């Protein structure tokens, strides 16, 4: 800006004189103001001020400091600004260069701050995207859970079926206990040291022989657990008279290809 106007300033011979007069006039006005301040300070020193008043004491200290500063300014010779246009142009360029450097520093600081704010914004945006993804996932889970939630009527039906199942289990347990007591009473295993009439049967009895109700329980569990293969292999624990009794009664059937395997008749079919 100054470089563009410098030729006009150098060609105009009136401008340096007017600038000098203006500077001198301004200096004279400042000097007059300083003389007025000095005279006011001189007048205020004539009245004694009680030292007990802290505020007044502070004002006195400030007055002394101003007086000393004013004395220093009186001792200094006023520095006149050069009227040489080349000097003024050089000073203006230096001042502009300082302003430019300061502005460049400010610009660099602003750019650095903007870069940091940009990084913070990217992190916040990434965090926001992650939160949105989590929220969408939670919504999907909530929707799936709502689909899986059963109604009150379905809960009541399920509870009723569960109660019926418990009742059936209890009835089954009582029925098996009653059956076991009946079989133990009417179809007990022969005593090994019994009378001569049962001696033949006791000799056929092995050490692992089980009661007839246990045989029926094994066959029943096999039929329920593996209905596709309900057969059980007859071993030493199955007393042969019990097996023959069950076969003749139609309660148990032999395997059509393997006589050593038997199964419970499917009365429920």
Give start-end ranges of low-pLDDT stretches: 1-15, 193-199
Q: What is the helix/strand order?
A: HHHHHHHEHEE
Distance between the termini: 111 Å
Helical residues, percent: over 70%
> What integer value in Å does the Rg equal?
60 Å
Tally of separate helices: 8
Widest sheet: strand order?
Answer: 1-3-2
Q: What percent of residues are in strands?
A: under 5%
Question: Mean of the pLDDT scores?
Answer: 77
User: Tally of extended strands?
Assistant: 3
Q: What would you call the structural class?
A: mainly alpha
Specify the overall morphology: rod-shaped
Write a brief caption for the model:
With 269 residues, this protein is mainly alpha-helical. The chain has 8 helices and 3 strands; from the N terminus they run H-H-H-H-H-H-H-E-H-E-E. It starts with a helix and ends in a 5-residue tail after the last strand.
What topology emerges from the helices and strands here?
Layout: H1 2-11, H2 14-44, H3 54-75, H4 85-148, H5 152-186, H6 199-204, H7 212-225, E1 232-233, H8 240-249, E2 252-254, E3 261-264
Antiparallel strand pairs: 1-3, 2-3
Helix pairs in contact: 1-4, 5-7
């Amino acid at each position: 800006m100054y470089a563009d106007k410098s030729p006009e300033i150098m060609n105009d011979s009136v401008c340096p004189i007017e600038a000098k007069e203006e500077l001198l006039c301004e200096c004279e006005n400042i000097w007059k103001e300083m003389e007025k301040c000095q005279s006011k300070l001189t007048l205020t020193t004539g009245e004694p001020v009680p030292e007990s008043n802290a505020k007044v004491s502070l004002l006195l200290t400030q007055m002394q400091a101003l007086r000393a500063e004013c004395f220093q300014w009186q001792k200094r010779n006023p520095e006149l600004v050069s009227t040489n246009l080349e000097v003024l142009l050089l000073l203006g360029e230096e001042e502009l260069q300082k302003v430019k450097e300061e502005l460049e520093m400010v610009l660099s600081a602003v750019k650095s701050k903007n870069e940091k704010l940009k990084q913070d914004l990217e992190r916040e945006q990434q965090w926001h995207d992650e939160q949105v993804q989590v929220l969408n996932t939670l919504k999907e889970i909530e929707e799936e859970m709502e689909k899986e939630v059963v109604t009150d009527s379905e809960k009541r039906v399920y509870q009723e079926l569960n109660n019926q199942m418990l009742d059936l289990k209890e009835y089954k347990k009582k029925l098996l206990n009653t059956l076991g007591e009946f079989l133990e009473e009417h179809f007990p295993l022969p005593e090994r040291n019994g009378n001569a009439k049962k001696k033949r049967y006791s000799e056929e009895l092995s050490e692992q022989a089980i009661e007839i109700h246990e045989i029926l329980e094994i066959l029943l569990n096999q039929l329920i657990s593996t209905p596709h293969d309900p057969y059980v292999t007859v071993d030493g624990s199955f007393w042969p008279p019990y097996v023959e009794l069950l076969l003749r009664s139609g309660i148990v059937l032999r395997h059509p290809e393997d006589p050593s395997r038997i199964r419970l008749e499917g009365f429920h079919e």
